Structure formats: C-alpha cells, structure tokens
Amino acid sequence: MRTSFGWIVAAVTVLTLTGVSSPQSAEKADASSVKEKLVGAWRLAWEDEQGTDGKMKHIVDHKGTIVYTRDGHMSVQIMLPNTNAPRDVDNPVKYDQGGYEAYYGTYEVNEEAHTVTHHVQGSLVRALVGKDLTRVYQFSDGQLILKSSRADEHWTIAWEHY
Hints:
By secondary structure, this protein is α+β, with helices and mostly antiparallel strands. Helices cover 20% and strands 43% of the residues.
C-alpha cells in the first residue's frame, strides 16, 4: 500500500512541476509559445492576392520584412518591384503608396482566435494610423502565414524567418 502511494505522490509531483496536471499552465505555455514563435525578423516568401477579375494571383517577386519584438512592438515593410504598373488588386483598404507599404506599432496575440492584431502607430499611408489590423495567423512548414480577418479582403501572405 505504501509503495503504491509513494508512486502516486511521485507522479503527481512530476506532473505538477511540468505543468501537465494544470490546464491553466498548459494554456499559459501555449500562449507564450505563440508569441515566442512570432518574435524575430521574417522575410516575405510569397503572397496570394485577389485581382480585380476575382482570380487569385500567386506573387513571389515582392520583397519585404516583418519584425515582432518580445516587448510587443512590430513593423512591416513591403516593396513591389514595378511601381510604374498599376496594381490589379481588389482590396478595399489601401496599404501601399507608390508600390511601397510600411507601418509600425504594437501587437497583441489572441491565441484562442489564432489572431495577431497590429495597432498602427505610424504608416506611410496616413489613413492607417490609429487603426487595428487583425490578421489570422498559422504556422506551416516553417512559415508564418497571415490573412486578413476582414471578409472583404482576400489575400494571404507568407513569411520565413531570416
């Protein structure tokens, strides 16, 4: 009887120390791990955007960087290669000016909704200043995939760690 009780106490101690026995501990570990996965500098891998013809276009020639800091700050910059060509994009929000997109601010992660919200403090497009841009995130094959949470925006962008 004492031997069984000793094993039970040992098992409960190990589970408590590792956080396995507590659902709240597991949730906290998951939340911090999502933010930790975001932290760092990412380079633009590809974009899918809906054109004015309604078809999705896969784009790999845009260049860009997005950075998330541990203390909750972020910045993004994207450059389109040919600024003379008009953009054939069906998007209700204008993010770029002259083929360049740039904004910075703070961010919050909502792990339950799988979203990261960018709180824009400064932007090349001044109409974005003060806006909250919510993105649905996913991690897949070493990439950070972001999509707009807006039903009227149809784009996906993939980032890879530098």
